[in-house]
Specification:
alpha+beta, single chain, binds flavin-adenine dinucleotide, 12 helices, oxidoreductase, four-stranded antiparallel β-sheet, FAD/NAD(P)-binding domain, seven-stranded mixed β-sheet, 4Fe-4S, Alpha-Beta Plaits
Length: 455
Amino acid sequence: MSERHREFVSVAAGQVPVVADCDVVVVGAGPAGTSAAVSAARNGCKVVLLERYHHLGGMASGGMVLVLDDMVNAGTEIVTTGIVSEFTERMKAQDGAIYPPPEDCRTDWEAWKKWSRWGAIDFHSTGMPQPIIHAVAFDPDCWKRVSLDMVREAGVELRTHSWFSEALMEGGKMTGVVAQTKMGRQAIRAKMVIDATGDLDVGASAGASYLQGQFIVTTVFRLCDVDTAKAEAFEYSHPEEYKALDRAARRVIGGAWGMWWLKTPLPGIVWCNCPHMPGYDGMSPEHMVASEYEGRERMMKLLAFARENIPGFENAKMLGAAEQMGIRQTRLLQGEYVVTKDDLTKRRWFADSVCRGRDYYTPYRALLPKGIDNLIVAGRHYSVESEAQKLSREIPPCMAQGEASGIAAALAIAGNVALRDVDARAIQKQMRAQGADPGDVPSPNALVETMETAQ
Ligand SMILES: Cc1cc2nc3c(=O)[nH]c(=O)nc-3n(C[C@H](O)[C@H](O)[C@H](O)COP(=O)(O)OP(=O)(O)OC[C@H]3O[C@@H](n4cnc5c(N)ncnc54)[C@H](O)[C@@H]3O)c2cc1C
């Protein structure tokens, strides 16, 4: 964007009050950042969690991305556990999460009819019916409540309404961060910094190398007063008629995955993961305004079409669009190791794997920037190629990265060593102790090129 700006002003540097001194500051309280903060605090660190908005959850709550997926390897092996499982069970206890029991995770039409409209299908599978897999439909406000509970119980100091603005550096080492608030700028000093902004805001400010990625953006929304039982009954009793209507609906919205509406734990309320809009830069204020106008216009057209044409949607109403624009990809760290599409599609195993996604392994090095001390990243902006990030950015693997990064920060402080000198085996061991799968043991379908252990 900067090349479009021809004129500049100078602003005074000024003095910034220090509002907190801590072991670890986590910037961004999305799925990755919340997990990182809880994990670091449970490992004995004094943690500050900084968030620009009033709510916790990032895309999972404010962005209303309402299905946890990419958790399963080879159809049945659940590989994102630990804090991800804890979130799931806590939400379920509040009637805020629904997922298929193991006996329903199979491939037949009966299971498909029961679970596909909850989003518990293998989206990567092209044959029909697609396999039913472990995936979790959840409620966004429940996510916010569970996040707050877990952060408070872990003793994390939460600072919302605080927009990260600058990295504090001494030479090549991070010493804290500055946030912009209603009360002016505020500084937080920290021994270790975890960048969980999703956009690499901290890393970019600290001088980390990155590539500028981009992908479709989406104004996700929910409809209420939908008779989902009627809609499903029509879909299964009149499959050809339904398919034609569904195709027409997707033309009206102008960009959606196959399943443009899914059920949520709240009766009569459906989640619409659309419209998908290419060409927008998720960091540009001008682009975000334009996409907001475009997305809202398109969703109202879809609502009108659905009310008019789709059985079950006759009385549907707009419950509302997500508070946050659905941003999938912006800056991507180019760190100590850059994960490639080949790594993911071949299921390449790494000896220093510290967390896992669907059927891939994330090496510790992919969380570390080059040349900057005391900074680690967790989330959708980790060190990865653009095409590979599209396959490895789902909520559960981002949370697993957060859990691992919190452990790494705690180990670095305890051992008085740089993050890059933390022994990945120690992170793996602690991940296992926390009930998470670090990927230290390759699954039978992994590509194992060397069995050297982590160092
Ligand atoms: C439309 C859409 C559909 C998706 N569908 C699915 C799906 O079905 N299932 C799935 O598992 N995943 C899905 N994803 C992917 C997933 O939602 C994200 O990749 C995931 O949420 C990333 O988590 P994160 O914590 O890295 O980043 P985010 O969720 O983006 O969280 C980043 C956090 O940092 C905060 N922050 C950012 N900048 C600053 C700053 N400067 N100062 C302070 N705070 C800051 C944000 O407010 C936010 O809370 C989808 C994504 C989109 C956009």
